[in-house]
Amino acid sequence: MRLSADLKAFEARIGHSFRTPELLVRAVTHASLSSQTRPDNQRLEFLGDRVLGLVMAEALLGADAEASEGQLAPRFNAMVRKETCADVARTIGLGEVLKLGRSEMLSGGRRKEALLGDAMEALIAAVYLDGGFDAARALVLRLWGDRIGTVQQDARDPKTALQEWAQARGMSPPSYAEAGRTGPDHQPVFTVEVTLDNGAREAARAGSKRIAEQQAARALLTRLERESGAA
User: Which of 145, 126, 144, 146 is nearest to 135 (CA)?
Assistant: First the structure.
């Protein structure tokens, strides 16, 4: 099987040349375009999630020999969560080479967080099956890169951290409210506002309420900590 020009270029971007090109084609084929002769990437996604987990657990242990299990667990979760996988997928242009059905393509499938995250896991599995664990490890470490070194900061859940900040000062937990929604039904953008008892507030926009809440909490916490440090 010969790969199309876009997939050959994609091979160069990820730094892995497939001995079995069918694996790459399957990794980028969404269920909306699958058939009996064209399997989708769902089974690869299942495997890739486990391969990513093993690589990341090994990498985090090696990066901090003194960290406890309680410290490593949130770092691990931050590295393997769907949002991180989708972010990595964007850096390599994975969405551009996805094979989607017409309806999924029209609904903005190439930009969907969950779809990109799933495809990233499927790609890891494809590399694992094609080149073995060493090849999959090399791919993950190459693509995740500096994220592994900065994960301690990223692993802190901003909503939990903001709640702890408020409670330490005798305040009620932060309140979150949807302040707006734009875009079509298949690709909405939510604006969420977070407010504290003392009137401090911040807002953020994202493609899901959960992510918007996290971003708003992070923005408010960052501002509060900066103001506290300047006082």
Answer: 126
